[in-house]
Amino acid sequence: MVTVHEVARVAGVSAATVSRFLNGTAKVSEEKRQAIESVIEKLNYKPNVLAQNLKTGSSRTIGVLTQSLVSGYFADAMAGIDEALQGTGYAPLIVSGHWHADEEAERIELLIARRVDGLVILSGKLKDAQILKLSQRVPIVAFGRDLSSPRAYGFCLDNYWGACEAVSYLIEQGHRNIAFITGPSDHQDALARLAGYRDTLAKHGIKEQQQLIVGGDFQESSGLLAVERLLESGQRFSAIFCANDLTAYGARLALYRRGIRVPEDISVIGFDDLHSSMYTTPPLTTVRQPLFDVGKCLGRAIVKMIGHEMLDIEVPQLNLVVRESVKRVD
Amino acid sequence: MVTVHEVARVAGVSAATVSRFLNGTAKVSEEKRQAIESVIEKLNYKPNVLAQNLKTGSSRTIGVLTQSLVSGYFADAMAGIDEALQGTGYAPLIVSGHWHADEEAERIELLIARRVDGLVILSGKLKDAQILKLSQRVPIVAFGRDLSSPRAYGFCLDNYWGACEAVSYLIEQGHRNIAFITGPSDHQDALARLAGYRDTLAKHGIKEQQQLIVGGDFQESSGLLAVERLLESGQRFSAIFCANDLTAYGARLALYRRGIRVPEDISVIGFDDLHSSMYTTPPLTTVRQPLFDVGKCLGRAIVKMIGHEMLDIEVPQLNLVVRESVKRVD
DNA sequence: TTGAAAGCGCTACCAA
DNA sequence: TTGGTAGCGCTTTCAA
């Protein structure tokens, strides 16, 4: 492996000058610049990032803590982060916490041991206090929590609002008996969606029916189970609001198995707008979470925070995307 | 940040001894061991990985080149790699080439500049020759190509065989007019699946109908379009073999739009077995690609290759998973 | 078993 | 504008 010194020697300059040329730290005379350039070319010299790291104390790496490597939801956000980091000289180091506080903490230690310059945290179970504490060691940008200290910034999407939109839409379409399949009860977003469901019902003077709210865990299987229970309970309902799209997929399958048509017999609405929701049968009406934009936002923010620049975040907004899984009833 | 020297000073030993203790490089007396341990504990000392890297010339990082950060297909493989790397001291550095040879080459340079100890390449458009060349600089394990030099190992799944299975199954179920929606024509796997389709038809004495083979690109939209063309062509067919699951989703939606039932009117079979294929309506019969296992295999292989150990790879096998999108006809 | 010392390849300071 | 030099924090000889 060729080093600065070798380049310097061949080009007849000092290593310091080569370094200066490389980093644009100071002016280098035209003559030497050319000499250096051609030697770098000839020797195919590539600076050793590891040595740069050691010297500068920075790894030019951003740690990204996700909760799942296989979830389309998080994948979108990661793609956004990746895009935002492109061309900044920072590379993302991705680890997964699997929705488990201990594992998250452990992975973050691993990230810090690798001297990441910043951390992006995607949801998870860590307490805000823990994150604040961590932020003393490394600047943090988080999604799914409200934080705004100088070294820890975080934002949420307005899940409550999104749920209100979904339920209002159902009501506008004439639905009165609306079932809700919840997400995990220890999940902030899931709770907000439930609250939105309840409040919107109340706002429209619709009495909430306890039996129409059934537990789920954001996975397809729970949607399937929930609908089966709903159906067996004998409750009447014309629409189901699913806490997320995955749940809606499961719900839809349960309905299909019983020969119940969507949306003719029962309407279904989801939350998230995963890619595949455009191609379900029927295409799913759902509340879109602009995760890719969220990722871009996070990526940009962490770079700015590292550079001690002002964070001018524009938090992306949710919006209802109407497709074909909801029917108007009277 | 506390350093070895500080630990050494407080513990009353030399830095070298601390290092030896940390790495188990040599015997350290019980007495000093305890002293060092307690000081490390007290000072909360964490070795600076960057410095270790510089010294040892290794970054304890594995570069992973994927083609898409949002594809469920690649995500599974990445999760497998992640699992295999767990506890080995190696962390994956993931970059995406977006199915573009130039971008792949560029990202790989970035990975090498960061001194990754090994490279895992997931498909892509790079030529085998390029990969072989690259492998002089860094050991490589690749998926989707057959390579077996000491520093570059690669394997494929038997897509041809998988396609034969799918088509044989359709034929067993009584189908004779089987349409095929292809993948991109410059994609190795897509070609193998097409060949499997053709050969299996031939093997059963079924004449291939040119009009039943329609172009696609592995995306949902192409499946949708393809079915529309198929339908408009007026050709008779009772089953569609889609080059991958995404295509099948699109095809299924096109059928749905026309009020054509699956599988009662037309059977559909896919390839890949993405997670969501279990929850489509009806659940999709498809050829399973065990991508998670592939990822585990790759992760283990690259670590072994770096350690100059024997690679004892057991290449995972495809298999047909029968669900509900194919009906028996007579 | 231990310590001293010499770097790994780079950047940044200081002096010229 | 340039070169010499001193480290960054660690590991690894070499001697003791």
Tell me the total number of β-strands of chain A. 12
CATH class of the largest domain in chain A: Alpha Beta
**So what's the oligomer here?**
homodimer
User: Considering the protein shown, what is the CATH homologous superfamily of the largest domain in chain A?
Assistant: Response regulator
Which bin fits the share of residues in helices of chain A? 40-55%
Inertia-based shape of chain A:
elongated
Task: Kindly report the CATH topology of the largest domain in chain A.
Answer: Rossmann fold
**Biggest chain pair interface:** A-B, 46 and 46 residues
Counting helices, strands and paired strands, the structural category of chain A is alpha/beta
Keywords:
434 Repressor (Amino-terminal Domain), elongated, Rossmann fold, DNA-binding, 12 strands, alpha/beta, homodimer, 3 domains, 330 residues, six-stranded mixed sheet
Describe this structure in words.
- Two copies of one chain form a homodimer.
- Chain A is of the alpha/beta class and 330 residues long.
- Chain A has three domains: 4-56, lambda repressor-like DNA-binding domains (434 Repressor (Amino-terminal Domain), Orthogonal Bundle); 61-157 and 291-316, Rossmann fold; 159-288, Response regulator (Rossmann fold, 3-Layer(aba) Sandwich).
- In chain A, 44% of the residues lie in helices and 15% in strands.
- Chain A is built from twelve helices and twelve strands.
- In chain A, strands 2-1-3-4-6-5 form a six-stranded mixed beta sheet, sandwiched between helices. Chain A has a six-stranded mixed beta sheet with strand order 8-7-9-10-11-12, with helices on both faces.
- In chain A, a hairpin with a 2-residue loop joins strand 5 (147-149) and strand 6.
- In chain A, helix 1 crosses helix 3, helix 5 crosses helix 12 and helix 8 (159-172) runs parallel beside helix 9 (188-203).
- The longest helix of chain A has 16 residues, at 188-203.
- Chain A is elongated.
- The N and C termini of chain A lie far apart (75 Å).
- At the A-B interface, helix 4, helix 5, strand 2, helix 6 and helix 11 of A face helix 4, helix 5, strand 2, helix 6 and helix 11 of B.
- The structure holds a DNA duplex (16 and 16 nucleotides).
